[in-house]
Amino acid sequence: MGRTIAVANQKGGVGKSTTAINLSACLAEQGKKVLTIDMDPQGNTTSGLGVDKNAVEDTLYELLVGQSDVETTIVKDVVENVDLIPSNVNLSGAEIELVGIDNKEYILKEITDKVKDNYDYIIIDCPPSLNMLTINALTAATSVLVPIQCEYYALEGLSQLIHTIDLVKDRLNNNLEIEGVVFTMYDARTNLSLQVVENVKENLQQNIYKTIIPRNVRLAEAPSYGQPITIYDPRSTGAESYRLLAEEVINREVE
């Protein structure tokens, strides 16, 4: 049985797409077969994995509204061992089209159920909001990974996210767990980053990953070249950090 991990936080700019892209690539480096699903209409994970989001014909949008099937939508081997279900701005219209459809919260789950036996991990990059797309991701997932940026408002909205996760677990997906919190954009030169980490640890009872993702220029540059950090600069601190996170994710499964 593979694991389906939703990377979620309704706050924007916390490193969701960066984490989805690079965790996928680092899991693949470990020999795991990964399907990455871009659930965000901005399509950053799609372009960050080297796929032209404006040129691709079949996307998650067509899949959700029943205009394509999962086999034709998956883009194979965007990185070795990583397949992708791409997205673009069309996905923003999906929510309106799904109004009135029975069991609309389960559409993504029905899609992933068809292919999950082909993969060790399915990584879903969620949009920066708690909308029907995110609900679909949480209903399909076995766990939620929450990136938190090391900045002053880090905890803002986190209680709402955890409340939503609890609601989904209660009403739609009994198997859903919080995979853990991962700190991103950590700047060792500032007291603020350290204070945020301490503050979250004090206020949050959830699992917190030991790996902390640093603020790293190479990590920020990689998406514009359509490459995960493991290809763009495999020796950078950003690449090493995501490798450590991937190892923690794999080890957590063993535990």
UniProtKB/TrEMBL annotation:
Pinpoint the AAA domain residues. Answer: 3-178
Q: Which reaction does it catalyse?
A: ATP + H2O = ADP + phosphate + H(+)
CDD domains cross-referenced by the UniProt entry: ParAB_family
Alphabetical list of Pfam families matching this protein: AAA_31 (PF13614)
PANTHER family tied to this protein: P-LOOP CONTAINING NUCLEOSIDE TRIPHOSPHATE HYDROLASE, PARA FAMILY PROTEIN CT_582
- Assembly information from the UniProt record: Dimerizes in the presence of ATP but not ADP; ATP-binding is required for double-stranded (ds)DNA-binding. Interacts with DnaA.
Q: What's this protein's family per the entry?
A: Belongs to the ParA family.
**Name of the molecule in the record:** Sporulation initiation inhibitor protein Soj
Q: Which species expresses this protein natively?
A: Blautia segnis
Q: What is the lineage of its organism?
A: Bacteria, Bacillati, Bacillota, Clostridia, Lachnospirales
